[in-house]
Design brief:
By secondary structure, this protein is α+β, with helices and mostly antiparallel strands. About 45% of the residues lie in helices and about 25% in strands.
């Protein structure tokens, strides 16, 4: 009798374990079937974004954000690697330009250049070069920042940007890529140099640094965010 009860209990336990496994298998299949239709759409969205960014042809020295490296560029990447690359990326230097690339696709995520100890002449030359490449800037701020913004149709004009800013509708511009220059020294002419300036202006001009670090970056925030989100999933 005791042996029969023991076998009966064991049989019940086996049935219970089987039911649990069946339930979890059903749950996993249900979850997969729910997510599966969205996975191609997510991938397609990322691919479409990369294609739109690449179509803008924003870059320097033959590199463009959103575009894949050429064989020659990959060779340069192998010969001149840079340190402190984010997980899932590699970074290298071509002359004085840093290039950040997604490992999986060999697509450029960002291009940046940093010039420490730049003087006014160097700063003005850099701004002029960027304006030759990218046209009139979308916005300037604090006399030390120059900003170019792009949506899928091309450059965002200063007028459109200011209107959207005033109406708090900047997200509606659909900005997918930017070029941003940030300087420790003022881009505009020094105040107090002209005639008729008061002593306070002259004193303020004296305090302004004459050299400083100038930094600019070409990147796509939505593309970088999509990359980071994909890294978290993996």
């Amino acid at each position: 009798m005791g042996t029969g009860v023991f076998y009966a209990r064991g049989f019940v336990i086996m049935i219970d374990q089987h039911r649990r496994r069946t339930f979890w298998l059903f749950f996993c299949l249900l979850l997969l079937s729910t997510l599966l239709p969205f996975l191609p759409a997510m991938a397609e969205t990322g691919e479409n974004l990369a294609a739109e960014v690449a179509h803008l042809n924003l870059g320097l020295q033959g590199y463009s954000i959103g575009k894949k490296l050429t064989r020659a560029q990959k060779k340069i990447a192998g010969e001149h690697p840079a340190q402190k690359a984010y997980a899932g990326t590699y970074k290298f230097v071509d002359q004085d330009l840093f290039v950040v690339v997604e490992k999986k696709t060999d697509s450029v995520l960002a291009l940046y250049k940093r010039v420490p100890g730049a003087d006014k002449k160097q700063l003005k030359a850099m701004v002029a070069d960027l304006m030759d490449r990218f046209g009139l800037p979308t916005a300037m701020a604090h006399e030390k920042i120059v900003y170019w913004a792009y949506n899928r149709h091309g450059a965002v004009s200063e007028e459109d940007f200011e209107r959207a800013k005033k109406n708090k509708q900047i997200p509606g511009l659909g900005i997918i890529a930017t070029v941003k220059l940030n300087s420790e020294i003022a881009i505009t002419p020094d105040k107090g140099k002209g005639k008729g300036k008061n002593k306070a202006s002259k004193s303020s001009a004296v305090k302004q640094p004459t050299t400083g670090t100038v930094y600019f970056i070409v990147t796509s925030d939505p593309l970088v965010k999509a990359f980071l989100a994909n890294q978290k999933v993996l």
